[in-house]
Amino acid sequence: MTGAGDCYRLYEELASWWPLISPPAEYAADAEMISAVFASAAGPVRTVLDLGSGGGHVAAHLKAGRAMTLVDASAQMLAVSRRLNPECTHVQGDMRTVRLGQTFDAVLVHDAVDYVTSSGDLQLVIETAFAHCKPGGLALFAPDHTAETFRASTGGGGGGDDGSGRQASFRERTSDPDPADEWILAEYEFTLREADGTVRVVPEAHRLGSFSRDTWLRLLSAAGFAARALPGTTAGNDHQPRTVAFAGRRPASSPDQAH
């Protein structure tokens, strides 16, 4: 789920724990929502670019019948995804600046977009999606929240045993230290139990973007997309309702506005 912003231990030295901290099965509901949006596209969605693909847990539910290219900033998370999705193409890159020289039926930016913490960087991500979207193609952005829907919360979760005896769980607290800026704070505490019974607790604070609905629609339109907000009908992988997603359709004939 990484693609821009700061580097965090969770997506680097702790990446091998990702399937236990946030198991692939928890992404099935979001993948169902994404598939429904893909089904509404003007043409069949056979090729997909997943920007900020992380450990590949969303792609695992979407890849059947599709050729998927997964881009993430973290080499360690891509290694996790390659084990889960060996048939997919994996590319290390920053979702703000990567250019692959090809276009796709659909571009997906799942909750990795939460790590974009300024509207300027969000514009760059949207321009990347536009540059890789075929004329008439679709881009889908699925943040965990917007500025209007964010509510401070506490929670947690985690998976079970990975077969070797390792276990992981986490606790999370989200807050908005300054509602006037464009980010919120997520404070995590990861409890990691090794196969030999050794336990360590790793705290880490993440800055996450928080943009208004109007900002999303304005930036999508500025990039050249015909933009719309979609009501969320599923839960995010934090088990909170995903209240909104954003879709952009690239016009069937349009200039390449994103460079």
Summarize the structure in short:
The protein has 259 residues and is α/β, with parallel strands linked by helices.
In the CATH hierarchy, what is the architecture of the largest domain at level 2?
A: 3-Layer(aba) Sandwich
| Beta-strand content bin | 25-35%
Q: What can be said about the biggest beta sheet?
A: 7 strands, mixed
Average pLDDT level? 91
Which class do the helix and strand fractions yield? Answer: alpha/beta
Query: What is the subunit arrangement here?
Result: single chain
Looking at the structure, the CATH topology of the largest domain is Rossmann fold
Query: How many domains make up the 3D coordinates?
Result: 2
N-to-C SSE string, H for helix and E for strand: HHEHEHEEHEEEEEHEE
The helix content is 10-25%
Shape: globular
Question: Please, could you describe this protein's structure?
Answer:
- The chain has 259 residues and is of the alpha/beta class.
- It has two domains: 9-146 and 211-249, Rossmann fold (3-Layer(aba) Sandwich); 153-208, S-adenosyl-L-methionine-dependent methyltransferases, CATH 2.20.130.
- The protein is 21% helix and 30% strand.
- The chain contains six helices and eleven strands.
- The protein has helices at residues 18-21, 28-39, 59-62, 75-84, 119-131, 213-223, and strands at residues 47-51, 67-72, 89-92, 104-109, 133-141, 153-157, 167-175, 183-193, 199-209, 226-231, 244-249.
- It has a seven-stranded mixed β-sheet, with helices on both faces. A four-stranded antiparallel β-sheet has the order 6-7-8-9, with no helix packed on it.
- Helix 3 links the parallel strand 1 and strand 2.
- The longest helix is centred in the middle third of the chain and has 13 residues, at 119-131.
- It is globular.
